[in-house]
Every structure is written in structure tokens, then in C-alpha cells.
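Question (not urgent): is this output format expected?
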Amino acid sequence: MNTLPLPEPIVTYFGAEHNPEALTHCFTPQAVVKDDGHTHTGIANIKAWMAAASLKYNATTVPFAIERDDACHVVRAKVSGNFTGSPVNLTYRFRLERGLIASLEISV
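Got this back:
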């Protein structure tokens, strides 16, 4: 069980890695996600990206650290799945607006 003090939309995001439909409840309508050199804008595109990634990699993400940096919540997480180099630690940079994720940038 994860005991990190994560804001609710970030908890929902990590809980949705195999349930992209749940992303509707944690992103703003015009949210932007940047991952692996691609940008996904809007909930429909973000859900499609998550569904494809879930199917392709069957990844499990376990957040292990959080800090504030400017207006962002920066979460470090161990990601394990069907990909070369698994497991890997990734950085998730969340910017929240009015209790929802407005932007997310994922990097190594």
C-alpha cells in the first residue's frame, strides 16, 4: 500500500494505469501530457495514450518520492513492465489547476 501524501488527482492518475476511463476524473478538459517525445492534448487523447501504453507495456507504477518544484508536484516512481530496461525510475511532473491535472511531463 502506498503511503506517500499524494494530492487526490495524482492518486487517481496512478490508480488509472490499467483503467484509462478513470482519467476523466483527474485531468482538466484541455490537459497536456508529454511522454516519450509525444504530446497528448485533451482527455480523449490522454485516455487513448494511456490505453495503448497499458496494452503494450502492462506496466506497474509505484511512486516512492514527492516534492514541490515551483508550481508543480514532482513524483518519482518505479515502473516495471514489458519493456527493455524494466524496471526504471521515472519522474512525473504534475501541474494542478483547481484540483485537477492541467499538465504532466514524464521523463527518465
